[in-house]
Structures are given as C-alpha cells and as structure tokens.
Amino acid sequence: MRGREDEVSYSTRHTALSVRPAVIHDAEAILGILQPYVDEDIVLPIPVYRLYERIRDFVVAEQEGMIVGCGSLMIMWHDLAEIRSLAVRKGCQGGGVGRHIVDALIDEAITLGISKVFALTYETTFFVRSGFDVVEKETLPHKVWKDCTHCARFTHCDETPMARILIPDEQRDSDHLLPPMPPPDPNLMMPQSKI
C-alpha cells in the first residue's frame, strides 16, 4: 500500500479492527495465519524469503494487538491486479475481517489506477458480496497460471475465478497508449477440467 503509514480502523461486532500495510515483523504472523489453509490446499504456500520480497503487497488486520487476517494485492499488468493470500485466522472468521481486508486492497488498487481486480477462490459468496462476478478462466492472463503450476490441484482446479471492475472502460483514457498484456503461453495455461 502507498504511504506505509496508512491505517484504516473499523468496528466489528466484537472489538475495533484496523487494517494496515504489513511490515517485516508481521511476516511470522502472516505465515501462521496462512499455514492452516496451506495444509488444507486452499492457498499456495509462500516461502519466507518470498514473503519478505512481497511484504509491501500485503495488508494485515489487527484486533486487540493481534494480527487476525492478511491479504495481498499483486499487480499483474497496468490495468489488472490479483487479490491473493487472503486469510483470516482460524477462530476469527465471520466478524467482517476478510471483508475489511478486501476493502483495503480494493482502495489500494483504485489509488494505483488499476481498473480490474480478480481472485481465484472457493468462497464465491464472500466475493459476490464484495462486488465481484464469476468470470471464465480463459479470460485471465497467462501470468496467473504460472503460479498455479505449483498448486496440488493444478490439473483439476476447482477454484472459481472472480473479477471486479473498478474503473469502467469508458473512464480509462490512457490505456490505449500502453501495450496490451502479452498473449498467453499455451505451456502455462491451466488444463481444462474433464468434468
């Protein structure tokens, strides 16, 4: 997030919650929140060195001094970003933590001028409530699938791709000056499901 001092406070049904940019000393807590979901093959593992490299992409939700959630915004192209590594500490779900993290990531994308964000998810209802729509996997760029090759479910992916338009086409005035995303590399594309 821009300006590492950014912090947004929310009130959940229990206690105050703040969402702020992650800093280096949050890495251990982020890994701790993600690990149960990694163990369940819900999110991809992040090596600790990669988390340090990408710590600026992350926000954390903090409640009563404890990190209770995390998420990251990965820029894919001049007009596209992915919400990834979105997780809420086990036992803290259902209180709006995830929604506030997504709101913070959406705000960051808008600040950066990103016109569309997407997520690959098992939680479609959650993302629909945040303004996302289901999209076809084939509409996502090849860069998405590069990371997917490390997933245990790569050959039989059952995640739902969802996207949200932040800046409509008619409001984007300079995109015609920028190069389009390179065409997909067939070697990196997600295999088609055989259902």
Work out the number of β strands.
8
Major β-sheet strand ordering = 1-2-3-4-5-6-8-7
Structural class: alpha+beta
Fourth CATH level, the homologous superfamily: Gcn5-related N-acetyltransferase (GNAT)
CATH-level-2 architecture? 3-Layer(aba) Sandwich
- Give the count of helical stretches: 5
Rounded radius of gyration (Å): 17 Å
The first-to-last residue Cα distance is: 40 Å
Query: Do you know the CATH topology?
Result: Aminopeptidase
Overall CATH class? Alpha Beta
Average pLDDT score = 83
Q: How much helix is in the residues?
A: 10-25%
Task: Specify the overall morphology.
Answer: globular
Note the main sheet.
8 strands, mixed
Give the tally of structural domains. 1
Helix-strand topology string: EEHHEEEHEHEHE
Percent range for β-strand residues: 25-35%
Task: Please give a handful of descriptors for the protein shown.
195 residues, alpha+beta, Aminopeptidase, eight-stranded mixed sheet, 8 strands, 25% helix, 26% strand, disordered C terminus
What order do the helices and strands come in, and which of them pair?
Layout: E1 8-11, E2 16-21, H1 27-39, H2 48-53, E3 58-63, E4 66-77, E5 80-88, H3 97-112, E6 116-121, H4 124-129, E7 133-134, H5 142-148, E8 160-165
Parallel strand pairs: 5-6
Antiparallel strand pairs: 1-2, 2-3, 3-4, 4-5, 6-8, 7-8
Describe this structure in a few short sentences.
The protein has helices at residues 27-39, 48-53, 97-112, 124-129, 142-148, and strands spanning 8-11, 16-21, 58-63, 66-77, 80-88, 116-121, 133-134, 160-165. The chain has 195 residues and is α+β, with helices and mostly antiparallel strands. The protein has one domain (8-170, 178-188): Aminopeptidase.
